[in-house]
Amino acid sequence: MHIESLPSEFQKALPILTTIVEAGYEAYFVGGSVRDMLLGKAIHDVDIATSAYPSEIKALFEKTVDTGIEHGTVMVLDHGAGYEITTFRTESGYTDYRRPDEVIFVRDLREDLKRRDFTINALAMNKTGEIIDLFDGLLDLDKKVIKAVGNPSERFHEDALRMMRAIRFSAQLDFVIEDKTLLAINKEAPLLEKIAIERINVEFTKMLMGQAAAKGLFAFTKTGLYKYLPNINIERELDLVAAGLALKHKQLMTPAVAWTFLIVQLGLDDKRAKLFLKQWKHGNDLINMVTSANHFIRLYKRQTMVTNWDLYQLGNNVAIVNAVLAVIMEDFDENELNKRYDMLTIKTKRELAITGAALIKSGVVKPGPLMGKILLQLEQAVVAKTLDNNAAKLLAQAQVIVEGESK
Ligand code: ATP
Ligand code: MG
């Protein structure tokens, strides 16, 4: 196959390929960018593979950074853009099921493509737009199939993360996993326990956000791989199936929306949700957003009548709540919560017409726990609209509270 007009992402990198080729080496675009171009999808990073050794690449370009020199990757900086250039390599010995014991640089493209995970990720393209397809990746792209390069069981033994990647690509691209590859996931599923949770998390998040996430979730239950996900056991099978059913034809657009959706489906309360997300090694920002949205959704589902104070505490996370409720509730009106949120008198504590400093200055209260208590009561009253957000009125109310306290 020959690509007539290369997308601009490749055009920009062409001078780099030309420099390498003119120096007598081979160089190709490889992996995800070639796959995504052929699928007509947005192209992320353009990766380059070459027969030149890292030292030879560094000799050819003025500005390079050793981003992963031990596995043969050098970044070439060119007019503000950075391109990862990786020497063709083979990998040998995977005694820990996740990292090759040794990386060997080779001069042969075939060897490099052979170590790649799936046929659709093992395509290369030279600088004239010729596609090099040594493992029938083009056929599998056409058939919409995820198929391991070589023997799938062996490949999952080398690197168990590939089982997650198979399901993730199937969800992202809406492809089916080829039978033998699927059977091998079923058989080798326990190997997933060898993989770092952070890496499992990256693939699982991409799977949840895929256009065909339902397919991904069903693949997890069908193969039994779900049992080896952090903090998800056999009792969760039906929850995952239900999640898949709820997601049919719907897409979760951000990681926070995806994880809130999952936690709601698993029915976790505040405490358990937090623990669950921690065990999945999420960062604090995501944990805070998701637990806040989950807390609100649990209230909403129970009573449908949530208070202004609930909305106020939810804050910006109202967008996450809307996105998740739109997936899980039949005729959910996305405007309803937005309208109520927009009508809140204040959205943050900073908008309160009085500060702790002003309270102290007025002599109403001294610094200490009582001051915090007063501010909270004022904040709640303003949000509930039982008190105007007006400095004089707030001060008068503070006085009333202080007097009540001293009785
Ligand atoms: P994405 O759009 O998610 O970046 P990608 O295909 O570019 O998809 P990367 O993780 O960026 O995926 O990897 C780039 C390429 O490296 C892949 O296309 C594949 O050829 C190879 N690769 C990545 N991870 C593995 C792995 N665990 N085993 C074998 N090959 C891999
Ligand atoms: Mg990539």
From TrEMBL:
Coiled-coil blocks: none
Stored SUPFAM superfamilies: Nucleotidyltransferase, Poly A polymerase C-terminal region-like
Domain CCA-adding enzyme C-terminal: 252-397
Domain tRNA nucleotidyltransferase/poly(A) polymerase RNA and SrmB- binding: 174-232
Known EC number: 2.7.7.72
Residues that, per the record, bind Mg(2+): D45, D47
Domain Poly A polymerase head: from-to ranges: 27-146
Role played: Catalyzes the addition and repair of the essential 3'-terminal CCA sequence in tRNAs without using a nucleic acid template. Adds these three nucleotides in the order of C, C, and A to the tRNA nucleotide-73, using CTP and ATP as substrates and producing inorganic pyrophosphate. tRNA 3'-terminal CCA addition is required both for tRNA processing and repair. Also involved in tRNA surveillance by mediating tandem CCA addition to generate a CCACCA at the 3' terminus of unstable tRNAs. While stable tRNAs receive only 3'-terminal CCA, unstable tRNAs are marked with CCACCA and rapidly degraded.
Matching NCBIfam families: PRK13299.1
Entry similarity comment: Belongs to the tRNA nucleotidyltransferase/poly(A) polymerase family. Bacterial CCA-adding enzyme type 3 subfamily.
This protein's name: CCA-adding enzyme
Native source organism of the sequence: Periweissella beninensis
